Amino acid sequence: MRTPLRLLLLMALTQPCAVALGENLTLPKNFPSDPIQALLPFDNRLWIAQKNAITMWERGGGSPTTLSMEGVGGSARLMMGSQTGGVLAGALISASGKAEALPGLSSASVVGVCRHPADHRLCFLTEEGRLLGADVATKEVAGIFENLPKALGLGSHPAHLRALFAAHDRLYLANEANAGQAGKGGGRLAEWDWRGAWRMVDTASFVDVTGIESVNGERENLVLALGYDDLSVLLRVYSNLQWKRYRLPWRERPSTGIGQRIREISPGQWLMLAFGNFYLIQPPIPGSNQPQVRPLSACTESLHDFCAWGGSIVLAGGQQDRTAGTTQPLLRETTLAAITASPRPTGQGAWWRTTSVNANQVSESLLIAGFQKRTVHLSNEGDSPLTVDLEIDANNTEAYRGLYRMQVAPHSYVPYVFPEGYSATWLRLRAQEAGMVTAEISLE
Going by C-beta distance under 8 Å and a sequence separation of 6 or more, which residues neighbour residue 218? Predict the structure, then answer.
């Protein structure tokens, strides 16, 4: 018998939309009408990227200054600058408040940038799969790796590169599969040591990768990557010299990963927007490799980027102008407390869906902390009885213990509703026998 999960989720997801977070910043009359696609905070200035313009907003400094950047390729938030400046949308931002396009990037759709470890170049990643190096002094742009799709083994899958990050002499990139192909081999999370072959970390769709960069030449050890497949949101974490993979629920089933971000909002704290929910991420506690992840609230805004700026969090994207029938820029200033106080997160996820499992097979861990109502839906799609144990990590310490044993007759469905107020962080499943199973969860 099929699980009623879809009906339950439809009821949960059609609740009233979340209220607006914070206050809209007043945009000048001549502000471009395109949605905002990227932000770069720098000192007291906030740089705002749109399709063909970059605007400098100086806190307490009068009206924003908008610069035409016609022909600048790409508009993803790229890199926080040092004291000498930064990079946004293929343009160099100087400490004096000037934006200058790099001519060699005029036809490139730039999605990421990092510093080259061996010289003073900046490295740019394009959506279609080129890795370019730009000399800041001469503005010369040259190829570093021209055929990433081939190096990543994408074959007939088109490249949709989404993010680039560099730390401790490694380069990390995220590639998203075509719509509807998230779990079918077209996605990538890959790393490169600047020589030799690329190493594939994951072949699901990934849309962002970030972490802690090396500081003063010392190796830091945290990389965070946001992705998804046909079952749930994916969070890959590199810590203590190993990669681990976790599942998180989504409130909105992905159609594209554009706008899903992980941004550091204070040292050791990252805000993540992942398919309808905001999450707060912190590094693993001592003695554990599992990150600290907490769902904060539901998000119904159409956001493309967000950042910390001057003690606030700025949300940017597009909002529907019902009078004109067009999308207008959204720029909103809020706080972490306001985000947390918004309507609670809801979601769904799955460990297995019509999946053949072996006896004693253990699933990946899925986040259940921060949700008030949690229901596991288990369907036995095989011809023999099936027993599945629910195992929980109560304190985010990787110490799992049994919670409940679910027994399902052939071609039958059984739910398990968590006791109200039950405290746990991660949930995984263990199949006692081989079989064909669908295991899903709904959370409110």
Answer: none
